[in-house]
Amino acid sequence: TGGLSESMLGILALTLPLLAAGVLYGWLLDSGRLREGFGPGILYWVVAFPVARLSQELMVGSGTMSVSELLGDFMIFQALVGGAFGLGFFLLHNQISTWMSREEGGAAGN
User: Fold this and answer.
1) Nearest-angstrom CA–CA distance, 58 and 53
2) Which of 25, 72, 105, 109 fits a 20 to 30 Å CA distance from 95?
3) Contact 94, 52 (CB under 8 A)
4) 2 Ramachandran zone, left/alpha/beta (phi>0; psi -120 to 50)
5) Which residues contact 52 (CB under 8 A, 6 or more apart)?
6) pLDDT in tens, 100-110
7) 83-100 as b/e, with b when 16 or more CB fall inside 10 Å?
8) Count of CB atoms within 10 A of residue 82's CB?
9) What is the largest CA-CA distance in the chain?
10) How many other β-carbons are positioned within 10 Å of the β-carbon of residue 39?
């Protein structure tokens, strides 16, 4: 009992830090504090994704892992996953920003 509500709590516990990291990424790009490109985008998520996963684990923890025992292994693995996540995020972010700039340009031309 309560399986679905526990899953929703875990999803929410990961979604909120990832959302905050995505907003921060956009702000860093807009303010010029982070260069655009594969390298900076992926490196950003190599750091941000493990932090988001650690916060999720601390909030809802599965109970099967003591964070203090395996913290180094956990963070290294999450950094590897974060690199792949960063690549996908970077590609999607570029597609959406290109589409939005075309839409804004088309609306301004009318």
Assistant:
1) 9
2) 109
3) no
4) left
5) 14, 17, 18, 21
6) 888 887 665 55
7) eebbeebbeebeeeeeee
8) 25
9) 61
10) 11
Tally of residues, the chain: 110
pLDDT tens readout for residues 57-89: 888 876 666 666 788 999 999 999 999 999 999
Q: In this structure, what token pair is assigned to residue 82?
A: 């974060």
The answer to whether the beta carbons of residues 105 and 85 sit under 8 Å apart is no
What residue has token string 């590897």?
80
DSSP 31-75: HTSS--SHHHHHHHHHHHHHHHHHHHHHHH--SS--TTTSHHHHH
The pTM score is 0.81
